Amino acid sequence: MSAVAALDEYLDGLLVDRPPPAPARAPTAVVALAPAPTTPAMAPRSAEAASPAPPAWAAIAALSAQEPGLPHRRAADRSSRWLRLRCAGQAYGLELLKVQEVVLPTPLLPLRGTPPAMLGIMNLRGQVVPVLDLGVHLGQAPQPATAATRYVVLEEKGETLGLRVSAVEDVVNLTEQQIEAPDRTRAGRIHSDLFRGVARQSGDPVILLDASGLLDPARAGAR
């Protein structure tokens, strides 16, 4: 036997004894697995930096706890706004929160059987508003109308009232420390229940009036 024939016989023997090839495997579906839960011990350090900041009220509460005297200091500095006006030569103040508006004098419809301080009623954009001469109501002599005369309209809880004044000056801010109680004032005998106190600015005393008392029909009609 030649060498070539022997090699062919050897190769045929290998092919016979060789196991058949394995069948092709079907493609396997890929399933996404959820990440394993992270325990606190395994949490990365960056998670601490991503945690939300504490709410603003927590910081305020902490500040108040550190400085217990802070609210008391701020209470002493609280201020209120007042409309400063004049009746004759006396300055008065009305709390701005009770002032609805300031208007020019308009014709009034007189009312019978009312005190001298009650001038009548005016039509304010369809609203009937009684008008009171503030100076006369507070014991002053009647004053003639001038170019500076104004009607100050007060409003609270559905009640409205117009006040005739000699002039309206400006709005001032007053702290509690700037307001002197009526029983301690040096501006004179102030005994009316309509007076809330006296404020001094630039040496000119301003008598602060109780707008709620003026709006009370039982107190506004008579002094």
Largest β sheet strand count, sense and barrel closure = 6 strands, mixed
How many helical stretches?
Answer: 7
In the sheet with the most strands, the strands line up as 8-1-2-11-10-9
**CA-to-CA gap between the ends?**
150 Å
By CATH, the topology of the domain at 76-220 is: OB fold (Dihydrolipoamide Acetyltransferase, E2P)
What amount of the residues lies in strands?
A: 25-35%
Mean pLDDT across all amino acids: 76
Helix-strand sequence: HHHHEEEEEHEEEEEEHH
Any idea what the radius of gyration is? Answer: 45 Å
Q: Report the principal-axis shape.
A: elongated
> Any low-confidence stretches, pLDDT <50, length ≥5?
28-34, 39-44, 46-50, 56-67
Structural class: alpha+beta
Residues in helices, as a percent range? 10-25%
State the name of the first-level CATH class of the domain at 76-220: Mainly Beta
CATH superfamily of the domain at 76-220: CheA-289, Domain 4
List how many beta strands DSSP finds. Answer: 11
Level-2 CATH architecture of the domain at 76-220 = Beta Barrel
Please, could you describe this protein's structure?
- The chain is 23% helix and 32% strand.
- By secondary structure, it is an alpha+beta fold.
- It has a domain at 76-220: OB fold (Dihydrolipoamide Acetyltransferase, E2P) (Beta Barrel).
- The strands form two sheets. Strands 8-1-2-11-10-9 form a six-stranded mixed β-sheet. It has a five-stranded mixed β-sheet with strand order 3-6-7-5-4.
- A hairpin with a 2-residue loop joins strand 10 and strand 11.
- The protein is elongated, with a radius of gyration of 45 Å.
- Residues 28-34, 39-44, 46-50 and 56-67 have low confidence and may be disordered.
